[in-house]
Amino acid sequence: MLLPAFSEDAIPGRIRLLFGVGLAFGLYGPLNRIVTPIATAPIGFIALLVSEMMVGLALGMIVRIIFQSATMAGAIASMQIGLSSALVFDPAQGGQAPLLSRFAGVAAAVMCLSLNLHHLWIAAILKSYAAFPIGGLPSASGFAQLALQAVAQSMAIALSLVAPLILYGVLFNLALGLAARMAPTIQVFFIAQPLNILLGMTLLATTVGLMFTSFADAMAGFFAVAGLG
């Protein structure tokens, strides 16, 4: 329901349902000996189901928070090069989003799938049954701490991905400010906007490969540090 790439509204509901069923069959083998004795025990099945759903949604939300660093980086890049008003519909965010934010989200999903990072997401599901025994909810404070760590890591990743564009934006606007002081009667910012987009897109095209490679490394590193990979 929350894993990036697999839970997007752009994917038909039947395809997502079939993926969920296939994932359940795939996890049946390694988890059968753990789940079956507890599932057949005389305890409240509904309560057991609700607790497992809460753990699964929490893990999925952690993954999505880290994944959102890519779309956050795209939004910052759009602002730096003057494309923040170029909006497109983004099903992942349920509304309008900057053009580069949508591009970054799609590129990040392709990068994760091509480098098999989605295997880490599935491995996190498997390891969750050892870390959080069935029938008992994990520590709320521990999950809150992990969520805060994920938010901080996501923001740090986003800022590090677009660091060259942030530096470019500062220098470009500083140069425009100096030019406006020397020629106050000329609309410097309006005239230089096409140049800003051209230079910004050139810099983005130069660094986009390194940007998404760093994103993949950062996501894998987060799972390794958190013990979910």
Structure in words:
With 229 residues, this protein is mainly alpha-helical. It has one domain (13-226). Helix content is 76%, strand content 3%. It has seven helices and two strands. The chain has a two-stranded antiparallel sheet with strand order 1-2. The model has no long low-confidence stretch (mean pLDDT 81).
SS-based structural class?
Answer: mainly alpha
Strand tally is 2
* Helix residue percentage: over 70%
What is the rounded Rg?
A: 22 Å
Approximate strand percentage: under 5%
Shape: elongated
Mean pLDDT: 81
SSE topology string: HHEEHHHHH
Low-pLDDT segments, ≥5 res: none
How many strands, what sense, and barrel or not for the largest sheet? Answer: 2 strands, antiparallel
So how many helices?
A: 7
Please state how the strands of the largest beta sheet are arranged side by side. Answer: 1-2
Summary tags:
two-stranded antiparallel sheet, mainly alpha
Strand and helix layout:
Layout: H1 13-39, H2 45-80, E1 87-90, E2 95-98, H3 99-114, H4 118-131, H5 140-161, H6 163-182, H7 188-226
Antiparallel strand pairs: 1-2
Helix pairs in contact: 2-3, 2-4, 2-5, 2-7, 3-7, 5-7, 6-7
Write a brief structural summary:
The chain is mainly α and 229 residues long.
